[in-house]
């Protein structure tokens, strides 16, 4: 949030990231409530290693959030693209390892983030 107040290019990128994060979150929540897929921990022998944020699994909001911000900053600062996207991917993988998402939930959350990021960046130019 702090970069929003620094001004200049960094503030513009932070604003783009905030818009992308907000839009991707809205899309994820709409899909999540429409599909209603239960989390893996709600199946037979399932157990999450953390408290589940809600009962729905598809798509992953955490994976979408991490990738939406990483995508915008990676687009603005290409030299940081690999570590930013790797960190966002690690967030997604952690959701699977913690038992709160299936791999497809993470993948679709990240796809939503990238598509939202492309739309937001295209609309900005």
Biggest sheet layout: none
The CATH homologous superfamily is called Phosphatidic acid phosphatase type 2/haloperoxidase
SSE string: HHHH
Please identify, by name, the CATH architecture: Up-down Bundle
User: Class by helix and strand content?
Assistant: mainly alpha
Number of strands: 0
Give the N-terminus to C-terminus distance in angstroms. 22 Å
Kindly state the mean pLDDT as a whole number? 87
As a whole number of angstroms, the C-alpha radius of gyration is 15 Å
Beta-strand residue fraction: under 5%
Total domains, how many?
A: 1
Task: Estimate percent helicity.
Answer: 55-70%
Structure description:
- With 125 residues, this protein is mostly helical.
- The chain has one domain (2-124): Phosphatidic acid phosphatase type 2/haloperoxidase (Vanadium-containing Chloroperoxidase, domain 1, Up-down Bundle), CATH 1.20.144.
- The chain is 66% helix and 0% strand.
- The chain is built from 4 helices and no strands.
- The chain has helices spanning 8-35, 61-76, 81-97, 103-124.
- It is elongated.
- It starts with 7 loop residues before the first helix and ends with a helix.
- The mean pLDDT is 87.
Can you describe this structure in just a few lines?
The chain is an all-alpha fold and 125 residues long.
């Amino acid at each position: 949030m702090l970069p929003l107040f620094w001004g200049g290019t960094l503030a513009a990128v932070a604003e783009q990231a905030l818009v992308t994060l907000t839009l991707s979150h809205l899309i994820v929540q709409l899909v999540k409530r429409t599909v209603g897929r239960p989390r893996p921990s709600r199946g037979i022998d399932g157990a999450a290693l953390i408290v589940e944020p809600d009962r729905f699994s598809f798509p992953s909001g955490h994976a979408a959030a991490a990738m939406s911000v990483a995508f915008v900053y990676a687009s603005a600062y290409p030299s940081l693209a690999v570590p930013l996207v790797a960190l966002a991917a690690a967030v997604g993988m952690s959701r699977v390892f913690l038992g709160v998402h299936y791999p497809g939930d993470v993948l679709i959350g990240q796809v939503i983030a990238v598509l939202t990021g492309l739309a937001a960046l295209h609309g900005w130019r």
